[in-house]
Structure formats: C-alpha cells, structure tokens
Design a protein that fits this description.
about 400 residues; alpha+beta; 4-stranded antiparallel beta sheet
C-alpha cells in the first residue's frame, strides 16, 4: 500500500538566475568585473550618442531644444507661493532696480560723451606721434628725457624689486642716422597684439609696412570709425581705409551699447596684387585633341585685409547661424582691440611692453584660467589612466598563469 503524501513540497528546478547560479559555474570568466563609470570610455559614450535616435533625427533635437528654450525665464512658482507681504517687498525691490537701470543708462551715455571729450585732447598727441613715426619731426629733448627717465626707473625696480644695471646703448655706424622716422612702427605694433597677429600673413606684411597711422573717430550716432592711412605702395591705390562700427539706437538692459553692424571702404587693388585671394592653377586635357591648357582660378585666402570685408548679419529678426555669430563677435572684438589697445598705447605695443602689462593683469588672449574643477578633471584623468594600466596588467596576468599551467 502506498504511503500517503503528507505536506511534501514539490522540488521544482528553478530557472538559473544571478541569485541561484554559483559564480564558479557561470559562463563568464571568474575574473570578469562589473563595468564601472571609470571603465566606460568617452569614445564609447560618443559612439552611443551618435548612433542614437536623436542623432539620426535632427527634428527631434530641434523640438526638444525648442521645449527647453520655452522654459527659460519661466517662473518656478516659488515667488507666487510666498506670502502676500513678502511678494510686495519683492515688487518694491524690482521698482528700485528699475531706477538703478535708468541711472546705468545715463552713466553709459555720459561715459561716451567723456570719451569724445578726451579724444579731442588726445588728438594733438596722436598727431605728433604720427609725425615722429613718419619722420616729419623729431621729438623734443624734454620728451626724450622723460621717456628715458621712466625706462631707467623701471630698470632700477626690476620685475622682482631688485636693482638692475642700466643697459648700455650701442651706436651702430651703418648709416642708420639717415633712417627716416620709425620704420614698420604700426606693423610691429599690430604683430605684437596676439589677436591681430593671427590675421597677418607674410604677404600682408609687405603692404602693412606702408601703414603710416591709425586714427579713431566717433560718430554722431552711436558708433565709431577706425581710419588706416597708407603711403604709396604696390598693392592698392587707397590712401585711406575706413572701417565703421555701428551700435543699435536702443541700449541693453544695463545701458550698454549693443553692436549692430560694420561697414568698410572697398580696397582698390592693383592688378594681380589682391592679398585676400590666391591663384590656383589647374591643368585640363581635351579628350579629343589631347591638348592641355592651364586654367587659373581665384579663391579666397586668409589675410589681414579681410578685416575690411566685415561679415553681414542676417536681415530681419532671424537668428544668425552660429558660424556667422562667431564671425560677427570676432570682427567686433578686433575693432575694440584696435580702438582700446593699439591706438592709445601704440608705442608700448611696438616695444612689446604692453604684452608684459597684459600678462600682469591676466588678460592675455588665448589663455584662460583653470579652476579647481578642471584640476579635478585632470586628476581624474590621471586616475583613469592608472586604472587602465592596472587593468592591462590584470589582463596580462591570466596569460602568464595560463602559460605556467602549460609548462606544468
């Protein structure tokens, strides 16, 4: 007689799971490790993003960007949740802020008028500087002594406050007394300014050697002009090239002038002397006659004189593409550098002293201060490199162990 079944549980074979499967029997090698954030390479992330649906359909990206843009400036509801007396105090502060903005706008207007006033005082100094540079007159003995006294004082102090022996003047007997003015004065000044030096090519230098003066003029409307004067040269017939920057009639929220557009004189290049283009030659063969000919093609090229062909912003309220926006910002920054740096302190840019001043104030273009976060990133990168090297060592160890096993 069979025995009755009393409270016996059926022992069903469970499906293999990470919880009930021994690591020794797992199909993955025992030395495998879980992927961590540090082990995920940036290239893998970039590849995943590029292969994602967002990257494949830019319309989705544009739609999401539009949604995000619509959230900018939208209230989070915090101010509305405050008690009524607190909201009234906040409103009062906004009223005070509006009065502050009005004063800022008045301040900016007065600053421009003050700049115009002092430009009239600077102009006689600039005119005398131009005459000395071009060899029309010689500096007064008092001016020479004042310049030497300042230089001697700087040498006495030194960079570290230490005394330095004054440099001995060397007199060259090579007929340099017959040299007129200061040759290549403006070319040297422009080349010592990093942002401008990047634009000047070897071909440009031959034309910029004939630059005799750079002047600043303010407009009746908000804006200013930069006037470049040239001596007779082999490249163009213009005696003067003017570039004008215009501000918008309405000011920014803080009263700042907003850059609008720029225009410049057309350069009248002499035949085959246009520095903004280069000639490409290409051979073509006739299929029937087998004769060859050389075809010349004119293509744009980098040149400082592209400065006189400023980029144009799109008309209307359409937003400018990112590349046009960058070109507009760069063009305006170049004009500001000439207006605020080169013209007022031309001799210091010629001697290179202005570079020292910019280094002291931390305004050297092309160099940015690195904060602690960047330092942390660098340390993280070093740690990642160390981990990668450790992983490589670990990967090489099993191979050595396997070799030892074979030997046994």
């Amino acid at each position: 007689m069979s025995e009755p079944i009393r409270n016996k549980k059926l022992e069903l074979a469970g499906a293999p799971t990470p919880q009930n499967t021994p690591s020794a029997n797992a199909p993955i090698a025992s030395r495998a490790q879980e992927p961590t954030v540090a082990s995920i390479k940036e290239e893998d992330v970039d590849r995943a993003v590029n292969n994602s649906i967002l990257a494949q359909d830019p319309r989705i990206v544009a739609m999401l960007q539009g949604k995000l843009d619509s959230l900018v400036g939208r209230s989070s509801g915090y101010i509305e949740s405050l008690p009524r007396p607190v909201r009234q105090r906040v409103a009062g502060l906004n009223g005070i802020q509006k009065e502050h903005l009005k004063l800022q706008a008045e301040h900016q207007k007065e600053v421009i008028e003050l700049e115009k006033k002092y430009l009239t005082k600077f102009t006689p100094l600039y005119e005398k500087r131009a005459k000395i540079v071009n060899g029309d007159i010689e500096p007064d003995p008092e001016e020479i002594e004042a310049g030497k006294a300042e230089k001697d004082e700087e040498n006495d102090n030194g960079e570290n406050g230490e005394m330095e022996a004054p440099a001995k003047e060397t007199v060259k007997e090579d007929g340099s007394d017959d040299m007129k003015g200061i040759p290549e004065f403006w070319l040297s000044a422009l080349k010592n300014c990093v942002t401008l030096a990047e634009l000047i090519t070897d071909r440009d230098e031959q034309a910029l050697k004939h630059l005799t003066d750079i002047r600043l003029e303010y407009l009746e409307r908000p804006g200013f002009s930069l006037v470049f004067e040239f001596a007779e040269n082999d490249f163009f017939t213009n005696k003067m090239l003017r570039k004008t920057y215009y501000y918008r009639t309405e000011t920014g929220r803080n009263g700042d002038f907003i850059y609008d557009s720029a225009e410049a004189d057309k350069i009248d290049w002499k035949p085959e002397k246009d520095l903004t283009v280069r000639i490409e030659q290409k051979k073509q063969r006739n299929k029937n006659t087998k004769q060859t000919r050389v075809v010349k093609k004119t293509v744009p090229t980098e040149s400082f004189f592209n400065f006189f062909n400023p980029p144009k912003a799109p008309e209307g309220d359409d937003d400018a593409p990112s590349d046009i926006e960058e070109s507009l910002e760069l063009d305006y920054q170049l004009g500001e550098d000439i207006k605020e740096k080169i013209i007022p302190s031309a001799v210091e840019w010629f001697t290179g002293e202005a570079l020292l001043y910019e280094c002291e104030t931390g305004e050297m273009p092309g160099f940015e201060d690195e904060d602690d976060e960047d330092g942390d990133d660098l340390s993280d990168d070093r740690e990642d490199d160390d981990e990668e090297s450790d992983d490589e060592d670990d990967q090489s160890k099993p191979k050595q162990e396997a070799a030892e096993c074979k030997q046994s």
